[in-house]
Specification:
The complex is a heterodimer of chains A (86) and B (182). Chain A has 86 residues and is mostly helical. Chain A has one domain: Orthogonal Bundle (Arc Repressor Mutant, subunit A), CATH 1.10.10. Helices cover 66% and strands 0% of the residues of chain A. Chain A is built from four helices and no strands. Chain A is elongated, with a radius of gyration of 21 Å. Chain B has 182 residues and is mainly alpha-helical. Chain B folds into two domains: 61 residues, Rna Polymerase Sigma Factor, Chain: A (Orthogonal Bundle), CATH 1.10.1740.10; 111 residues, Winged helix-like DNA-binding domain superfamily/Winged helix DNA-binding domain (Arc Repressor Mutant, subunit A, Orthogonal Bundle), CATH 1.10.10.10. Chain B is built from nine helices and no strands. In chain B, helix 1 packs parallel to helix 3. The longest helix of chain B has 24 residues. The chains are: A mainly alpha (86), B mainly alpha (182).
């Protein structure tokens, strides 16, 4: 294969396309060739996969309600507002 | 449904209105539903369309960029993690990511971890949050999400990529704090 090897940074940017199986064959091969020799990107990919699995364990209720969040944030700001510039 | 509506209109009250109108639309339009998309994506689209119209009428045009977020402000990956162009290995990791294997399983899948993921999702730009919620929490297919949110295939993936990248980063930060966090 004559294509230039991909850098870690490039590979990281393509990982969702890779996981989603949305890469053209040649690019997928380049990603795989990189992963075969790169511990850093392999670890990162494992983490992405694990993140997806863990996210899948969430229930809707575990994603907090936006209004409640705003209220909490407002409260935090208010309790901090004693100090200038905060 | 309320969440979708909330992306486009100014208040919860208006969003609730939108949802009600959407249900009416669903009831009236159900005969026209042709089954080309799944029922749930069809309902989503109805909500989104009504909400967009209502938002526009309110003079509240939400710029697409505000819903999507941009690479600069909500980065899940820092350029500084990689060697720059002049180094011996441009674009390579400066420090290899530490794997999560040493983390005990019960902590990794613990309630606190899941809570952190929920929080991370909640702070994403709205469309990113919606895409990751539908794809990874509810398990919809990419086609369903595209249809429901009226996104191109590429946009759907870009949003999903940013969302997952961000969540991974938050998760990594949390898992590295050890068990001493408050």
């Amino acid at each position: 294969m004559t294509a230039r090897a991909m850098t870690c940074r490039e590979v990281i940017d393509l990982l969702t396309d890779y996981v989603e199986d949305a890469l053209p064959t040649q690019e997928r091969r380049r990603v795989e060739a990189h992963l075969a020799t790169c511990d850093g990107c392999t670890t990162y990919l494992e983490q992405v996969r694990k993140t997806i699995r863990l996210t899948g364990m969430l229930t809707e209720e575990q994603i907090p309600d936006e209004d409640k969040q705003r209220l909490l944030a407002a409260f935090r700001d208010w309790t901090r507002s004693g100090s200038p510039g905060g | 449904m309320l969440r979708i509506a909330r992306m486009y209109v100014s208040s919860r009250a208006v969003a609730e209105d939108v949802v009600q109108e959407a249900w009416l639309g669903v009831v009236k339009g159900i005969e026209r539903f042709e089954g080309r998309s799944s029922l749930r994506t069809w309902i989503y689209r109805i909500v989104a369309n009504i909400a967009k119209t209502r938002g526009a009428a309110e003079g509240r045009v939400v710029p697409f960029s505000a819903l999507v977020g941009d690479d600069e402000t909500d980065r899940g990956v820092e350029p500084s993690w990689f060697h720059d162009a002049n180094s011996r290995s441009p674009g390579g990791w400066k420090a290899i990511p530490e794997d999560w294997r040493g983390i005990p399983e019960d902590r990794l899948v613990g309630n606190e971890t899941l809570r952190r993921i929920g929080l991370a999702i909640q702070t994403l730009p709205p469309l990113q949050a919606e895409v990751i919620r539908l794809r990874d929490v509810l398990g919809w297919s990419s086609d369903e999400v595209r249809n429901a949110l009226d996104l191109s295939e590429v946009n759907q993936r870009v949003l999903l990529h940013r969302a997952r990248t961000r969540v991974r980063r938050e998760l990594d930060a949390y898992l590295r704090t050890g068990s001493e966090d408050a």
